[in-house]
Amino acid sequence: IPTAERMGLIHSIDLLVVDKTIDFLAEFPNMSNISVSINLSSAAFQNKTLLPVIKEKLDLTWVDPRRITFEITETAAVNNFKQTSIMIEKIRALGCKFALDDFGAGFCSFNYLKAFPVDYVKIDGQFIQNLVNNETDQVLVKSMVEIAKKLGKKTIAEFIETPETIEKLRELGINFGQGYVF
Q1: Is there a smaller number of Cβ atoms within 10 Å at the N or the C end of the chain?
Q2: pLDDT tens across 5-46, in order?
Q3: Residues facing 102 on adjacent strands
Q4: Burial bucket for residue 10 (CB in 10 Å: 0-12, 13-18, 19+)
Q5: What order of strands is seen across the sheet that includes strand 68-73?
């Protein structure tokens, strides 16, 4: 990705991933439970063609936009806060969802969580990997879950590697998880 960014190819990659992913979803009926998450590069929100491409592709394929969640890392989101926030709102207006990825890895996380119009908060794996044996991580994850819940956002834990971690996350109120254990 850093090479693609330096070479000016990252916009093309973002658009190709969006195009191919929506085509993939179009192969399944809209009543299907299949949904996808698409990671966007930090440069995606500077690309004026992103929104029209998403809209046109959804119109052409009749894919239910609620089946698509776009992910943006916390650090990428804050690079150009205003433009990113505006673009997120416009894409959400199409019916798509957004996740703030790697939440907790940057500074001022809670301020950005409050300000960004996202549907999901993905809690960074650094808080999850030793969760079962680390009380500090448990306290931090529990507080992130409670804050996200109060703000009307769902939580996703990253880097889940054991069934014990799944059980601990359930106790703490995490909504969804991802990791090698699945």
Answers
A1: C
A2: 788 888 899 999 999 999 999 998 766 788 999 988 878 888
A3: none
A4: buried
A5: 36-39, 68-73, 97-103, 120-123, 154-157, 176-177
Q: Structure tokens of 168?
A: 């601990």
Number of helices (H), then strands (E), in the chain: 8, 6
Quote the CA–CA distance of 153 and 111 in Å, as a whole number: 14
136 phi-psi bin (left φ>0, alpha ψ -120 to 50, beta other):
alpha
Output 107-114 pairs: Cβ under 8 A, ≥24 positions apart.
108/78, 109/74, 110/147, 112/74, 112/77, 112/78, 112/81, 113/147, 113/148, 113/151, 113/153, 114/151
Q: Are 14 and 44 in contact (CB under 8 A)?
A: yes
pLDDT tens digit string along 48-96? 899 999 999 999 999 999 999 999 876 666 667 788 888 999 999 999 9
CA distance 105 to 55: 31
Enter the tokens of residue 108: 């001022």
Tokens 């992130």 belong to residue: 144
